């Protein structure tokens, strides 16, 4: 989420930048160091939503929702 100028001249820039941040996180969970450390994205669980003016201030951004699989190594007695 980032502030949008009053004339909305940077709204596309804000949406693009926030989308890239979310895509980078998804890539790290899919193939990066987090994936290698067993914090893995459940395939097909990610979804994106662009938003504008959801709060008091003039803002825009991108939300991402996903499920992370983490191994449970705790023994059961």
Fold and architecture overview:
The longest helix has 21 residues, at about 10-30. The chain contains two helices and five strands, in the order βααββββ. By secondary structure, the chain is an alpha+beta fold. The model has no long low-confidence stretch (mean pLDDT about 85). The protein starts with a strand and ends in an 8-residue tail after the last strand. The protein has one domain (about 1-70).
Counting DSSP E segments of at least 2 residues, the number of strands comes to 5
Shape: elongated
Element order, helices and strands?
EHHEEEE
Beta-strand share of residues: 15-25%
| Secondary-structure-derived class | alpha+beta
Helical content (DSSP H or I, runs of 4+)? 25-40%
Number of domains: 1
How far apart, in Å, are the first and last alpha carbons? 46 Å
Largest sheet strand order? 1-4-3
Number of helices: 2
What does the main sheet amount to? 3 strands, antiparallel
Rg over CA atoms, rounded to whole Å, is: 17 Å
Question: Spans of 5+ residues with little confidence (pLDDT < 50)?
Answer: none
- Mean of the pLDDT scores? 86
């Amino acid at each position: 989420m980032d502030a949008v100028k009053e004339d909305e001249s940077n709204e596309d820039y804000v949406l693009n930048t926030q989308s890239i941040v979310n895509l980078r996180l998804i890539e790290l969970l899919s193939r990066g160091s987090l994936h290698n450390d067993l914090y893995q994205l459940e395939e097909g669980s990610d979804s994106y939503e662009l938003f504008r003016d959801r709060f008091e201030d003039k803002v825009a951004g991108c939300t991402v929702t996903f499920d992370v699989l983490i191994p449970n190594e705790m023994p059961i007695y």
